[in-house]
TrEMBL record, chain A:
GO terms for cellular component: plasma membrane. InterPro entries: ABC_transp_permease, BCAA_transport_permease. It comes from Ruegeria marina. This is Amino acid/amide ABC transporter membrane protein 1, HAAT family. GO terms for biological process: amino acid transport. The chain crosses the membrane at residues 12-33, 54-76, 96-113, 141-160, 189-212, 224-248, 260-278. One of its GO terms (molecular function) is transmembrane transporter activity. Belongs to the binding-protein-dependent transport system permease family. LivHM subfamily.
UniProtKB/TrEMBL annotation, chain B:
Belongs to the leucine-binding protein family. It comes from Ruegeria marina. One of its GO terms (biological process) is amino acid transport. This is Amino acid/amide ABC transporter substrate-binding protein, HAAT family. Residues 31-350 form the Leucine-binding protein domain. Keywords: Amino-acid transport, Signal, Transport. Pfam families: Peripla_BP_6.
Length: 289, 395
């Protein structure tokens, strides 16, 4: 039981971080960013390059992932999403753009980093072993703590900073925010950049545990969408709740159902379908959008 | 008037460029060889190493004047199609090859894709070289598929037997991704292990192919305390993570797989924790590699930045196709002639030292010669490189 709980907390923390960026972008711009997983992968590759290849400290690699993805996110919003949103009122226009971006990033990643799985040296050696009841490598514990700290910092930033308040106002009512003097264009760009930065940050954190490869983007996006659906689209607390719930469902399923084969995700998908049929807006979303 | 001048200039430019392009290619006629396989997604490494091996070899041939078959010297062009590991896409890829008049295709990389393209290949006179293991692809009445590597049911028993005799292995556990290839390889491995008298202590734990943290997946398997943990059909992307998680969970037994791996990937993903990991290597070792093999590795590295160890095996399919065509030029657009040539075909193996031969094998496993003969090299990973555990032959 101790192992299941620990796995659940660890998986939940990383999943929540992945979902945060996606839901932030959706909340601000009503954009389903299908390239979120690819942004996560890019973040992993930036940390891989700086920490694993060039020998910079791990923290420097993480910072570079954040900076790179922040700038990339800002550019994407300013030169791609903003013009499309301005010119087209159809939601599918931004969806197609996001899907195209995902394919584009896959191609760029293949060109720059190749097809192989990449990994970096462990940041902490050793394994915590409590009488074989709870086994957890120290690097996983550290990454879990860092993920939780990042989530708390993000919540505090959104709650108390001027930028955070502006972003929340934008998410609640774009027109009202504009009437109250919020520079909508600027904060849309900052919000998108922050969402991309969160993807880069979690990619950089997890490259120390899971490594990174070209093909991780799509499945990561799918999991992120699942978490957002569970928690409620566009709700920060919902993304965190969705991530933690998915993490615990996975940990419990893998421990309890493993003897029946790989049915954990089958059960999760069935539960999700039933749940969405009853509560389509997710746990914390509003039915009116 | 102005418009007419512009039009004339445009027509002249198009004609000139077409002439120039034609001139560039007119030196040799082009022989197109296809590749249909996975070059995107988590298993991209399998197909990309295929595609890049073919492109490297083709560029090498073209640079040195082309490849002579009968009285004609050809430039080789590789036509590639990413099937995204989706059987429907694989069928579309094989249909594309048929439309382009291609008769020889390397791939697909996985079982369901290889099975899906069989009707298209047989209906359109295409010989294809899959990296997939279902025996029905290579057993009569199937005729057009040639296994491009050593199958797990050929390498698995050899590895288990070696480990029983040399490492005292008595119990074994299997873990596989929840996909057709790994699952069929697991079932084949379980059957082979039981036949050899090993006790199978766990064989029902599987994982999603996109799993990134294997600690929860491996925990129930390692509770059975096997002497040997077999990672059935594991992809190069997942192998380091599985090894790392197993070792971090305190597992000290042996770990093996029947798929080819890459030493650099293992080093980056698992570091010293991968020491002792046993895998089926590419069909080359430093002791086996000829000068041509070293030249191939150098050219591949120059073209793509880094080499992929899997290409030690994947260099062979194109060579087999071209050498067989050279042996019987009539086969260039007639796969029946190709098949007739396969039985008695033999040519020097340029990638191995000594008097090794290229020849078709598979009579024991498939009842007909539908497999390329590449050495079965079993490696053990140690400190960033593979060391040869033993070398064997199929058939």
């Amino acid at each position: 039981m101790e192992q299941i709980l620990a796995n659940g907390v660890y998986l939940g923390a990383q999943y929540a971080m992945i979902a945060l960026g996606l839901t932030l972008i959706f909340a601000l711009m009503n954009v389903l960013n299908f390239a979120h997983g690819q942004m996560y992968v890019l973040g992993g590759f930036v940390t891989y390059t700086f920490y694993g290849q060039l020998g910079f400290p791990f923290v420097a690699g993480l910072v570079m992932s954040c900076v790179t993805l922040f700038i990339l996110g800002a550019l994407i919003e300013r030169f791609l999403f903003a013009p499309v949103i301005r010119r087209s009122s159809r939601d599918e226009s931004t969806m197609l753009l996001a899907a195209g971006l995902a394919f584009f990033f896959d191609a760029v990643i293949l060109l720059l980093f190749g097809e192989k799985q990449r990994g970096v040296p462990k940041i902490v050696n050793g394994v915590f072993n409590w009488d074989f009841r709870l086994i957890m490598p120290y690097d996983r514990i550290l990454i879990c703590v860092l993920a939780i700290l990042s989530i708390v910092s993000f919540i505090l930033f959104m709650q108390y900073s001027k930028t955070g308040r502006a972003l929340r106002a934008l998410a609640q009512d774009r027109t009202a925010a504009q009437l109250m003097g919020v520079n909508v264009d600027r904060y849309s760009m900052i919000g998108f950049a922050l969402g991309a930065m969160l993807a880069g940050l979690v990619g950089g954190l997890l490259v120390t545990i899971t490594g990174v490869n070209l093909g991780m983007g799509g499945p990561t996006s799918i999991k992120a969408f699942m978490m957002v659906m569970i928690g409620g689209a566009g709700v920060i607390s919902g993304a965190i709740a969705g991530g933690i719930i998915l993490g615990f469902l996975e940990a419990i399923g893998l421990a309890v159902l493993s003897q029946y084969g790989d049915i954990t995700y089958l059960m999760i998908f069935v539960s999700l379908m039933i749940f969405l049929a009853i509560r389509p807006q997710g746990l914390m979303g509003k039915p009116w959008g | 008037m102005k418009r007419r001048v512009v039009l004339k200039s445009a027509v002249a430019a198009v004609a000139l460029s077409a002439f120039a392009a034609g001139g560039a290619w007119a030196e040799n006629p082009v022989l197109k060889i296809g590749f249909v396989g996975v070059t995107s997604g988590p298993a991209a490494a399998w197909g990309i190493s295929n595609q890049r091996s073919m492109e490297t070899r083709a560029a090498w041939i073209n640079e040195t004047g082309g490849y002579t078959i009968g009285d004609t010297t050809y430039d080789i062009e590789i036509v590639s199609f990413d099937d995204q590991k989706d059987p429907k896409r694989a069928i579309a890829g094989m249909e594309k090859m048929a439309q382009e008049g291609i008769h020889y295709v390397v791939g697909p990389n996985v079982d369901d894709g290889a099975a899906a393209v069989r009707p298209v290949a047989e209906a359109n006179g295409i010989m294809y070289f899959p990296y997939a293991f279902p025996k029905e692809l290579y057993t009569a009445p199937a005729s057009n598929a040639v296994l491009g590597m050593v199958a797990n049911y050929q390498s698995g028993p050899a590895i288990y037997k070696y480990l029983m005799e040399n490492k005292g292995v008595k119990t074994v556990a299997f873990i596989a991704a929840n996909e057709s290839d790994p699952l069929s390889q697991r079932d084949g491995g379980v059957a082979a292990a039981k036949e050899l008298g090993l006790e199978v202590v766990s064989d029902n734990v599987t994982y999603q192919v996109d799993t990134t943290d294997f600690t929860p997946v491996l925990t129930p398997v390692l509770r059975t305390r096997p002497d040997l943990l077999v990672l059935s059909g594991v992809s190069p992307a997942n192998a380091p993570q599985l090894i790392r998680s197993a070792r971090e969970l305190g597992y000290q037994g042996l770990i093996s797989t029947e798929t080819a791996q890459d030493a650099q990937v293992l080093q980056e993903g698992a570091g010293d924790l991968a020491n002792g990991f046993i895998s089926v290597g590419g069909a080359s070792t430093p002791e086996l590699a000829s000068d041509a093999m070293r030249e191939f590795v150098k050219r591949y590295t120059d073209m793509f930045g880094e080499y992929n160890d899997e290409s030690n095996t994947k260099v062979y399919a194109l060579e087999y196709i071209l050498e067989t065509l050279k042996a019987n030029p009539a086969a260039i657009d007639d796969v029946n002639a190709f098949q007739a040539t396969m039985d008695g075909f033999e040519a020097p193996n340029p990638y191995m030292v000594g008097d090794a031969k290229l020849r078709y094998v598979g009579s024991t496993s498939f009842g007909q010669k539908r497999q390329v003969a590449v050495p079965l090299v079993v490696n053990v990973y140690q400190d960033g490189a593979f060391e040869t555990l033993f070398v064997a032959e199929v058939d």
